[in-house]
Amino acid sequence: PAALAAARVQWRVEISVWCFVQWCFFAQWHALKRYANQHDVQLIGDLPIFVAHHSADCWARPDLFLLDAQGEPRVVAGVPPDYFSATGQRWGNPLYDWPAMQRDGYAWWVARMRHELARADVVRIDHFRGFAAYWEIPAACPTAVEGRWVSAPGAGLFEALRAALGTLPVIAEDLGVITPDVEALRDGCGFPGMKILQFAFGDDATHAFLPHNYPTHCTAYTGTHDNDTARGWHQGAPDHERRHAEAYLDTDGADIHWAMIRAICGSVAELAVYPMQDVLGLGSLHRLNTPGQLDCWTWRFGWEQVGAAPAQRLAHLSAAIGRTAARDGPCSAMRGYAAT
Asked: Is 14 a catalytic residue?
């Protein structure tokens, strides 16, 4: 307490600056959300399963994380080798002490989810499979190759969240190494999973990510923030995947982004999500994130790039297929979701 009291005096200017910055952000964000909701637009938020070691969460409650006596992680988060990386992904986040969290009814998670639901109407929980079992990597290992699967609390956590917060408007990010226990957890919670069209063309017609195989209770994407853009993916895809995509989507590839948008829009998926880069038909230079690499998450668009045509085309398509109800005609303003 004495050290904190001294810090509040020594760093009072810096503390005040960051309090003001956060106040500005939340004031502006909630104003934006009110405006969107008033115009029948809902916002999809994104909640990472893990937090950073240098976060206020870990600093304030070290008893809820697997740390050593010096406060350093003993083990860290990541995923084993997969489609994106031959050495896996070593994220480096500290891992939760789940038994410690369970002792107070997962109060930390209840507070975190309550905060997120105040910022968004629907929440996509990233790395949902980590609630069934997570990949534990020794902190000294430089890659994610050396690790092991460790069981997580599963349904108990979401039962506590539902008891405290009511209905949970959640999308489960269920990509990667998905096992029956993950599917059982997702379905038991009633959360829709994700289907990524870019991943659908490496196999035959039975692939679960092809639109004709979708269950109704899912969210379909042309690609996510972790994928290349639709045009970039098509240009760099192996020949057999590109041929499969063109045959399935009935396109020569010139309009691959609209062909992919049309395919998931016309599917039975409850929700269809199209990245702005795909709506604008942009290539790999506009990719948002490449997993495992730094210097990502910097893409922006300018309104001069957009014009009226993409919105009109989306409106016509959504109304024709029945995802939205035309109000004054197929070009009228439409109900929808915006990914954030």
From this structure: no
Longest dimension (CA), the chain: 69
Instruction: Summarize pLDDT for 25-75 with one digit per residue, the tens.
Output: 999 999 999 999 999 999 999 999 999 999 999 999 999 999 999 999 999
Query: What pLDDT sits at residue 176?
Result: 81
Catalytic residue among 159, 203, 226, 270: 226
Tell me: the pLDDT tens digits for 259-269?
999 999 999 99
User: Can you spell out the DSSP letters for 89-143?
Assistant: EEEEEEPB-HHHHHHTTSHHHHHHHHHHHHH-SEEEETTGGGGTEEEEEETT-SS
The DSSP result for 161-197, as a single string, is HHHHH-S--EEE---SS--HHHHHHHHHHT--EEEEG
Q: Is 116 a catalytic residue?
A: no
In the structure encoding, which two tokens stand for residue 55, read together?
A: 């976060």
Cβ-Cβ contacts under 8 Å for 289 (sequence gap 6 or more): 225, 226, 296, 297
Q: Which amino acid is at 65?
A: F
Q: How far apart are CA 333 and CA 152, in angstroms?
A: 44
pTM above 0.85, yes or no: yes
- Are the C-beta atoms of 281 and 251 separated by less than 8 Å? no
Say whether 239 is catalytic. no
Token look-up 């109900």 returns 335
Q: Does residue 158 contact residue 168 with C-beta atoms inside 8 Å? A: yes
- In whole angstroms, give the CA distance from residue 90 to residue 147: 10
Residues comprising the chain, all counted: 340
Identified catalytic residue from 57, 126, 183, 270:
126
